[in-house]
Amino acid sequence: MNDLNNKKELLEKLVVIVQKEQSHDAFGEVYEILVDPVHRYVFYRVKGEDVEDIVENLFLKVWENIGKYRSRKNSSFVSWVFRIAHNLVVDYYRKSERDMVEVLSDFVVDQKREHNPIKMTKHAFDEAKLKKAMGFLSDKYNEVITLKYFNGFSNVQIAEIMKCSEGNVRVLQFRALKELKVQLSEMGVDYA
User: 181 pLDDT exceeds 50?
Assistant: First the structure.
């Protein structure tokens, strides 16, 4: 996400060019900047071969709707794109008749946890094993972990993408990491 933050201004300029000139070249640059983070987000949220289809569909939707995007003070083009990605993932699960889990709470989370299973296991074993453990998490937990730890979004950005409060994002992160820790322990992964 740090790379995306560095390219935020460039993305906004490219979007203006695409909107005014319907420039395929400018949109190609937008695609090149966003495809890897978007793919990573969808990869950790969706199982199987549908990842590529969803990413492709996302960029088609972005192209078709880019004229509707309006830059705002508290919102960015990146958040807008990831909101579309979120909606496509939700649609994917609706089509699969999978229940979405809503987690709401006023529980206060300590963000300074030293034992973060993501950081400790990210490089300790292959991506497939981590993805398997994340597959046992609810959709919301999976999403918040993917946005925060694999794409580096801030809590404010995650709240915007997930359409919830920043407090709920902290609650989701805490609970998601706790559940991931349980799943990894059951798989015999030592993350401490």
Answer: yes
- For residue 72, report the phi and psi dihedrals to the nearest 5 degrees: -130, 160
Clarify whether residues 178 and 134 are in a common domain.
yes
End of a domain among 41, 64, 95? 95
- For residue 133, the domain's CATH number is 1.10.10.10
Strands (E), the chain: none
Q: Could you report the per-residue pLDDT of 125-146, keeping only the tens digit for each?
A: 556 677 788 888 998 998 998 8
- Give the pLDDT confidence of 12-32 residue by residue, as tens digits: 899 889 889 988 999 999 999
Domain that holds residue 177: 117-186
Q: Got the DSSP string for 147-187? A: IIIIS---HHHHHHHHTS-HHHHHHHHHHHHHHHHHHHHHT
Same domain, 91 and 130: no
CA distance 82 to 85: 5
Indicate whether 124 and 41 sit together in one domain: no
The two structure tokens encoding residue 65: 């709707």
Domain membership flag for residue 59? yes
Domain contains 17: yes
Q: Is 1 helix (H, G, I), strand (E, B) or coil?
A: coil
Tokens for 76?
Answer: 């960015």
The amino acid at residue 111 is Q
pLDDT tens-place string over residues 149-169: 888 888 888 998 898 888 889
